[in-house]
Amino acid sequence: MTMAIHSARQYVGGNSLSWLLKDLDLAGVKGAVLSSTDGLVMSWSESVSREDAEKISAAVSSQVSVGKALAQYVGGGVRQLLVECEGGFVLMSAATTDSVLVVLTDPTADIGAVTHRMNELAARVGRELTAGPRRVADDGPERS
């Protein structure tokens, strides 16, 4: 299965990270969404409609809140959340402190392989979303 990706950039002028989601093209993966923790869709695969991507992002926001509330009982921050449904799995993995990678699978998916790929991808998304330090231009105007 080949997943074509859409990016919210064309709609809201944000940073396009859609090329990263292509790495989730694994057996059993139905689709993927990159969401902010406050419920805004950042990118989504073609197999997920824009409307569904927005609904998934909104639901992720509440799941992140639940995860944070429960994490206080075991310590540390939330890294991953998994919801097992009759029709498959919804896996959520922190990409940065403010973004979540969501993958939808059917029941036949190798969850270990999907989670491993998600962890690798989340690290790449984190690097892409983190701005480097600003530098002073050498040829800029002098200031007094």
Automatic annotation (TrEMBL):
What domain of life is recorded for the organism?
Bacteria
SMART domains, from UniProt? Robl_LC7 (SM00960)
**What are the Roadblock/LAMTOR2 domain coordinates in residue numbering?**
18-105
Record-given protein name: Roadblock/LC7 domain-containing protein
